Amino acid sequence: MKLLGRYPPCRQEGDVRLVPEEGEDLWHVYNLIREGDLVTATTFRKIEVGTNAERERVKIKLQVKVEAIDFDPEGQEIRLRGRNLTDTEHVRLGAFHTLELELHRAFTLHKELWDSLDLDRLRLACNPSLSADLAVCLLTEGLGNVFLVGASTVIKKQSVQVNLPKKRGAAAAGFDKALAGFHEKLMQAVVKAVDWDIVKCLVIAGPGFAKDAFKAYMDAEAVRQDLRSLILNKPKVLVAQATSAYQHSLREVFDNPGIAGQIKDTKAAEEIAALKAWYAMLAQDSARAFYGPGHVQAAHELGAIQTLLLSDTLFRVADVARRKRWVTLVEEVQKGGGTCVIFSGAHVAGEQLTQLTGVAAILRFPLPDLEDQELTGDL
Question: How far apart are CA 80 and CA 67, in angstroms?
Fold first, then answer.
């Protein structure tokens, strides 16, 4: 993400002008913009011209007060619906309009209050060294998907699907040729998607021998075609077991002990390790592992939180007071010497945490009395 200007002051009103440059940037934008914010961007509107009722597409600059947000990760687009605050000849003041935020198109975001978590996310998005640093190629015979896993989201960069003939009968003769064609397309997809200056590890995963066959093909063809990026980074390529080529199988890859040790230096591994530590503590000493707003807040009031686990979905709310309470919890835990790990709802670990209400904590010391209490409700 490119920041055109300076960061706004913390806990003050201000504007930022941003240009999303890759898919993960749009996930950051989606988490930054909330209902009530003001967004200014160029948009296009069809208007009638002349006496023949012909319609012409004109480019105009509008500011809307956001009332609804829709994010399309596949289409790499954010749609903001709200009332127009710019008086123009084409869109009347107060009329509803939908702004579309896309890659490489600048926009301005105005907030009445920039809190510390918003500014942390903004700095994360604008630092190019913190981009996706783990690539995963999930495949079965005839289907392959290449994902980039970053600090905040999972992006499907490439997808390859080929109809393979059956291995038996008259079509069997063409199977090997069709499989080689599939492997070639998938290898080119990997070459296109993976930036080895950023990616620290590529994991090839799938069921049976599909992953091993593709790895062998890629190694051989990299030498034959002199693909230097694959030859030089061969030690960074790992093979793992997975049951499918779809995104939900990423969890199987991350849960593999052999793979976990290899990807420990990637940013996605921090969330996975934190969640595993929470589950381990729950099994070892349940009085030191809690989840749910009520129990976590009670533990915080006793100064017991060592590690706080939060889903970023908790901060994507229109209720300013509610969001402020979560932000205050994070700041107070950090001030008390605790660690806070904010999970992306788009990651497999974040999905697991969301199923646990989106908030959990590992405590410094056991609280057996708290364990026996039934505490419900929101923070």
Answer: 7
